Amino acid sequence: MKRSVFLFTCIFIIIFSIISKPAMAKINQTQLEQYLVENNWTMGELVEYLNFYDYRLNDFATLEELSIFLGTPITSENLNDLLVNYQISHNELVTLLAEFGETMADYKFIEDLDYDVQFYLAHNEDFSIFTDFLSLVDLTEDELKNFFEYVSTLDENIVQQKLTLINEKVAAMSYLQGEAKLSIQEEQQLFSLWNDMLKTLSIDPRFYLVKDDKMTLIDVNNLTTQELFADSQLFIALHNLEGELLGTLKFHEDMLNSHLIYESLQQLGEIVGLAGEYREMIANAKLPQTAGNYVRNMLISFIMIIFLIVKYMLSFKAHRPSEGTNVTY
Asked: Rounded to whole angstroms, what are the CA distances from 10 to 16, 87, 313?
């Protein structure tokens, strides 16, 4: 009887451990509001921050778990430590962030600032090339930032295979670098690749031909005749799937049948590659504490239960009467 009760208790503990996670209480609302006030943050800003990492407030059982995930608020002390670590001055930090369309006011936690500074310093030269080149097609720094951040939120596993194929096709046309004039077939291939890459990135590209101060929406399949570009400009408006404008590209008449169409597409592919690298870096840096603790605690619970069962069985065997022993009831 005692043995049955003991085994039942162990099973109950296992079941309780499994079902207790979903039943855990939510974060205390009063404590959360106080935390937001102390960090000069709104609930909307917190929700937007968590959404970027594909998390929701309900994914955290306690304020402690949430605060660990968010990171350490920036102070003068840890900011100075960061400057010393990267051997830059405060003015150099401000300048670096500005080059990527950021300010110190955009950061709440020192870890987030650290990740970005590390990434920006490693790719500062790349972004300078992107900015200089894409300025030729009138893409501003703010628009480049919008595009980069949007692409950074995409699920890389879904788009990577398609992007790899597109990048291979772009690389196969590297002979167009420096070409003063493209053939109609080459233009057709390039605009088709432009459209394929933007569609793969969940971007709705809208092509407009501007001629005599008149803007006309055209189909990408019609961008195949050089006569169409005479005395014209081409605008490409980049919208996300919600219809929000991320940026616009403008190709002047003398650019439309030259190597710049190819090289701008090449630059776009490299920006997308860096965006994926950035996304992977911050995703790895922001692995949740809650899931890891839950699994760890479950393993500890199972080990303890197994240990108790083994201990009980050994104890039961030690006290079990041996054969031939007379037992008085």
From this structure: 10, 56, 13
Cα angle value 279/284/290 (rounded, 5°): 125
Structure tokens given for 105? 């006011």
The two three-digit tokens of residue 182, written as one number: 């493209």
Q: Residues 130, 106: contact at Cβ < 8 Å?
A: no
Q: Distance between CA 153 and CA 60 in Å, rounded?
A: 21
Which of 134, 159, 158 is CA-nearest to residue 146? 134
Element (H, E) at 235: strand 233-240
Q: Is 147 helix (H, G, I), strand (E, B) or coil?
A: helix
Residue 151 vs residues 239, 257, 268, 303: alpha-carbon distances, Å: 12, 28, 11, 44
Contact 36, 63 (CB under 8 A): no
Point out which residues pair with 247 in neighbouring strands: 238
Cβ pair 121, 96 in contact under 8 A: yes
Largest CA distance in the chain: 114
- 70-84, 103-117, 166-180: range with lowest mean pLDDT: 166-180
Q: Helix (H, G, I), strand (E, B), or coil: what is residue 203?
A: strand
- Helix ranges, the chain (H): 2-20, 29-38, 43-52, 63-70, 76-86, 90-99, 110-134, 141-152, 156-171, 184-200, 259-285, 289-319
DSSP bridge partners of 240: 203
Q: Which DSSP symbol is given to 61?
A: S
Predicted confidence (pLDDT) per residue in 42-101, tens digit: 999 999 899 888 889 988 989 999 999 999 999 999 999 999 999 999 999 999 998 887
- Tens of pLDDT, residue by residue over 161-171, are 788 888 899 88
Per-residue CA distances from 183 to 177, 218, 221, 264, 265 (Å): 14, 20, 15, 17, 17
Q: Which residues of 101-138 are buried (b: 16+ CB within 10 A; e: fewer)?
A: bbeeeebbbbbbbbbbbebbeebeeebeebeebbebbe
Q: What is the pLDDT of residue 94?
A: 95
